[in-house]
Specification:
Layout lengths: L1 H16 L2 H10 L4 H11 L13 H10 L2 E3 L10 E3 L19 E6 L2 H7 L2 H6 L15 E5 L9
Antiparallel strand pairs: 1-2, 2-3, 3-4
């Protein structure tokens, strides 16, 4: 739940910083029709690209920077471990892409239980360096690799 709250906060900050909320509120106060306001909302709801990412998806980008990839928590599902995945990957089906997006593989690492246990211990948080942007990156060892059937081997 904390990850979801932080993702939503990321969206809210982007919305506030880019003045989209103010623009829409001003339109309403100035008597624009609901249709005009909705049109403006669609035009301004595009998410920003972060660094050199090919897909503009602010929440996934935040996760990738904080945890080292998109995190798929599968709590309660014994046959499906929690995993951290490369972001973006060829399995990312988002509308706003730029460049020629032709990844050939995607890796998915199992989140070690030792890491999850450490997150729940005060000693872990006491030792975290606030300046270390990789402090919460999930350790990567055992992984699965998926091949992109649309691209072929080695991008051919």
């Amino acid at each position: 739940m904390a990850k979801t709250l932080m993702r939503e906060l990321t969206y809210a900050l982007d919305y506030a910083v880019n003045n989209r909320a103010l623009t829409l509120a001003t339109m309403v106060m100035n008597g624009y029709t609901a249709e005009q306001v909705l049109h403006m909302l669609k035009m301004t709801s595009r998410e920003p690209y972060i660094e050199d990412e090919d897909i503009a998806e602010l929440g996934r980008s935040w996760e990738s920077h904080v945890f080292g990839g998109y995190v798929d928590w599968n709590f309660g599902e014994v046959d499906m471990p929690s995993c951290v995945q490369e972001w973006p990957s060829f399995l990312s089906e988002y509308e706003y892409t730029r460049g020629s997006y032709s990844m050939t593989t995607r890796r998915q690492w199992v989140v070690p239980m030792t890491f999850l246990r450490r997150l729940h211990q005060q000693e872990f948080w006491d030792a975290v360096d606030p300046q270390d942007v990789r402090a919460l990156h999930i350790p990567k060892s055992a992984f699965q690799e998926f091949l992109n059937p649309r691209v072929g081997p080695a991008g051919s």
